[in-house]
Design brief:
Number of strands: 10
Strand content: over 45%
Shape: globular
Number of helices: 2
Strand order of the largest sheet: 6-5-4-3-2-1-10-9-8-7
Helix content: 10-25%
Order of helices and strands: HHEEEEEEEEEE
Length: 185
């Protein structure tokens, strides 16, 4: 049987995606470094913290809890520095290489995957559209970018997560990024 090159590449990608277990990959604690940019005002900020993916009951899902420090330009000048957190639930999808993320109240958010054909998704938050792109950077690092556009928001949020070792509960550094993005408290 002769396969066309496209079919061979498609079959290889499907096989690779089926072998990757996103749930197993995510389990544990990750440092989070996020650059935030409001394209409409030019404001730049950062979020530095920890994301924890933990087993959710026996349904194959994960609880996702993120907490840390947000730095954002204050309207009156200077920099707001404060704590921030968020929670989501990840549920098994149609293949182990993807999980469906919901808000804690069960409302759908988006699908998370590193598969080339499924690493992008979007979420409509009336009246703005949130577009996410995930990237697998290796066994201990991944990233995602939210591009938010609409009449109320024009944001770019770029996050890098790195696996924390046993006993680590916070990222190594908690300050402005080396490229100068963000502000001093």
């Amino acid at each position: 049987m002769n396969f066309q090159p496209q079919d061979a590449a498609k079959n290889a990608a499907q096989s690779e995606a089926q072998e990757f277990d996103l749930r197993a990959y995510l389990l544990g604690s990750w440092s989070v470094e996020r650059a935030l940019r409001d394209r409409s005002t030019g404001a730049r900020g950062t979020f530095t913290g920890v994301a924890r993916f933990s087993v959710k009951d026996d349904d194959g899902g994960l609880d996702f809890h993120e907490e840390g420090t947000m730095r954002w330009p204050a309207p009156a000048g200077g920099t707001f520095t404060g704590t921030a957190s968020r929670d989501y639930i990840l549920q098994p999808a149609d293949a182990p290489a993807a999980m469906d993320m919901t808000f804690p109240d069960g409302r759908p958010f988006h699908r998370m995957s590193f598969r080339e054909t499924a690493r992008q998704d979007n979420h409509w938050c009336d009246p703005d559209t949130y577009r996410v792109t995930y990237a697998h950077r290796g066994p201990n690092e991944f990233s995602y970018t939210w591009d938010v556009q609409g009449p109320r928001k024009d944001l770019l949020l770029e996050s890098v997560l790195r696996r924390l070792g046993p006993g680590e509960d916070r990222p190594a550094a908690d300050g402005p990024w080396p490229d100068g993005l963000g502000s001093e408290p």
